[in-house]
Amino acid sequence: MAKIPYKTYLTEEEIPKQWYNIRADMKEKPDPMLNPATLQPIKLEELYPIFCKELCRQEMDNDTRYYDIPEEVLENYKMYRPSPLIRAYNLEQALDTPAKIYCKFEGNNTSGSHKLNAASAMAYYAKKQGLKSLTTETGAGQWGTALAMACAYFGLGLTVYMVKVSFQQKPFRKSVMETYGAKIIPSPSDTTEVGRAILAHDPNTGGSLGCAISEAIEVSLQDDSCRYTLGSVLNQVLLHQSIIGLESKTAMEKIGEYPDIVIGCTGGGSNLGGLMASFMQDKLTGRKNPRFLAVEPASCPSLTRGKYAYDFCDTGKTTPLAKMYTLGCEFIPSANHAGGLRYHGLSPILSKLYHDGYMEAIAVEQNKVFEAATLFARREQILPAPESAHAIYGALQEALKCKESGEAKTILFGLTGTGYFDMNAYAQYNEGKMTDYIPTDEDLQPGFDALPKVD
Amino acid sequence: MAKIPYKTYLTEEEIPKQWYNIRADMKEKPDPMLNPATLQPIKLEELYPIFCKELCRQEMDNDTRYYDIPEEVLENYKMYRPSPLIRAYNLEQALDTPAKIYCKFEGNNTSGSHKLNAASAMAYYAKKQGLKSLTTETGAGQWGTALAMACAYFGLGLTVYMVKVSFQQKPFRKSVMETYGAKIIPSPSDTTEVGRAILAHDPNTGGSLGCAISEAIEVSLQDDSCRYTLGSVLNQVLLHQSIIGLESKTAMEKIGEYPDIVIGCTGGGSNLGGLMASFMQDKLTGRKNPRFLAVEPASCPSLTRGKYAYDFCDTGKTTPLAKMYTLGCEFIPSANHAGGLRYHGLSPILSKLYHDGYMEAIAVEQNKVFEAATLFARREQILPAPESAHAIYGALQEALKCKESGEAKTILFGLTGTGYFDMNAYAQYNEGKMTDYIPTDEDLQPGFDALPKVD
Lengths: 455, 455
Fold this sequence. Notes:
2 copies of one chain form a homodimer.
Chain A: E1 7-8, E2 18-20, H1 44-47, H2 53-60, E3 66-68, H3 71-80, E4 85-87, H4 89-95, E5 100-105, H5 116-128, E6 133-138, H6 142-154, E7 157-163, H7 164-169, H8 171-179, E8 183-187, H9 193-201, H10 209-221, E9 226-228, H11 235-254, E10 261-265, H12 270-284, E11 291-297, H13 302-305, E12 307-312, E13 321-326, H14 348-355, E14 360-364, H15 366-380, H16 386-405, E15 410-415, H17 423-430, H18 441-449
Parallel strand pairs in A: 5-15, 6-7, 6-9, 7-8, 10-11, 10-15, 11-14
Antiparallel strand pairs in A: 1-4, 2-3, 4-5, 12-13
Helix pairs in contact in A: 3-5, 4-15, 5-6, 6-8, 9-10, 11-12, 15-16
């Protein structure tokens, strides 16, 4: 039998033509979003002022199993997809493991991550509805960059509220977004009521993702030709990101493989949610029984140490309530944490699957994460994003277990993106200055105490 | 007939198994390198202390048409090659041109450019010869990153002399190289005689590529288990980079295409030299008659305004003399120039071909270059390196000529890499602060006056 190539690509014609909605195959559905004022389930129409209509429908739809990907989105996908399924031969050799390690690499596009898969869909539906512009927030900048690219492609305006401290520390991310025509505003700003109120209270604040979300929503609510967008957590995002897993499954079928375990990093859950979807379908329907492993940072351990409870999706408490694993929307991860995965909660879909026992989770300290990243960079020649390196760490652990047991398991993990914009963190690690942080139970308690009281 | 895909990939098995040596098909060979002390042609043995033996042979060999790519290098190539041949449909649409625009994109690897093709070969031959380490210099950092990756892969030490001003301005590039295990020294340094002499004369100097080359060579000469490497200009580099054109030609054959014109940016000539090689073979042997266009910066116009003369390859005047188009090795491009392409000379092979009328050249101001880069980024969703954007500008001009004439010509250009590490320049352009600089004849005269006197 021919050796499996380093990179398995589908052709552009083989790109899946439909997204897969994992909710359709879940016996127990995620609990509904609640209106925080009434604590009643949100109605579709209540979301229309925030998201464009088709995205509201996708957000609320627990039943439709497959959604046709619009032709225009498919054309955009063809410009940077299919992404390669990589066989990490050199990593296997370095570990001396009988395991077969595969990763689905989503970093070969200018946004540097998988975020473009959802951005493209959201920009398309907004354009189709006749909207003129979108707003969003960005922290590290990957989501903002992806949405800026998609808005340039589909011809929409975009205003990005960028957390002020990131705006100051990552001027290059700002410049990339501006090159794509987006308007970038450091948050908090004087362009919104919520921003002005925060600035009046603390003129020197570096901002937060929660505040940026609140500003982006406020602006979109004031202009009926504008809507808000979010790049993770939401059900619609997991739907769009299902393209990752669908492609992976087809590519693995081509080379006669199927994963024994699927591993992903989790912040809001957009990558693992997308990567795992079609394999989880096999598990939910009894066709196969792969394992699923979420790897989160020890500094922000929503799955391994959080509560499964109703909570706001933003720190500003302006969104509907979602049932998810959460550290409380007031939880702020340690400033020492490098890269993304800083979200207080996790996708309600992933949370429900974890709660129901379909998925495992571990939390890792960041020195171990960067050790894994460095090994991967040197052996596999791809510099991973710190987020991705959590998944790499998980894959290494599983591969080393195989070395112990002698089992030739097939491991698939999500290589979400590249680390070009995270070199400050790599430099810290290279210089031995990176510190680990694990919150104590006392550190976590205030976030839990502030959870909204539901029932 | 099926629509040509956005991206044409060869399979890993279809990667060419041989490099092509264009010198074998040149009726008039490039003039030989001279020993600057004797003005006699360099002998093979005189190069052995500088480069490893096989690379010396390749450097001097005007006759061998094809070189087998070593199996170990092919395995490394398979990790990031074949690179995609991209059909720029959206750019064609934006220009409303009947021209068909293709580009060969070399940026989808962590070094972000084509430089890895030569770095891999050089690291392999050094390892095979039993050497322990390599030295090199780097300015913008692309070459240093590529060589750091290759040395990590083949298990060699690497010391990179990085121009001090770049070391200070581009700390992220340094961190990437360190992640791959390389030692980075800002140049001039106190680790070499030449460095100490320069520092004694001017302790605050920001350094220059010429000085970094001199330091890297000095260090390699003192250690017989170490050799020096250079990522452009050399004949061996064009040999290794021929993989770009060989892949392009095979991919174009697959989709029934052949370029009417091949366009590339030129600094030292490594990308255009590699992209054009197998198409130039067709022209040299009378099989086809494509045009070739070099696009250089107006601020460093070695082809369009330089002399065809013997000159040093470095500012420090430590190398053999090469016959090439040059602005004089003492020429320092304006500090306003963004990105690479700052070299005073050009590959002797490309210089000879240009001198003999096989190639055309234009020089472009940098605001026009960034205008082209921005259009390309928005329509084709790839953020190009400023170097690449010179080639994009050339392609746009040719495509607009086709719009005038109604001709559906096939254009192929080299998209050398990504612009992630050049966002300062993009920011300048976005803010309207980028300035153009065209040296006057008086500006150029001192460089010409200082050319070595040969005959």
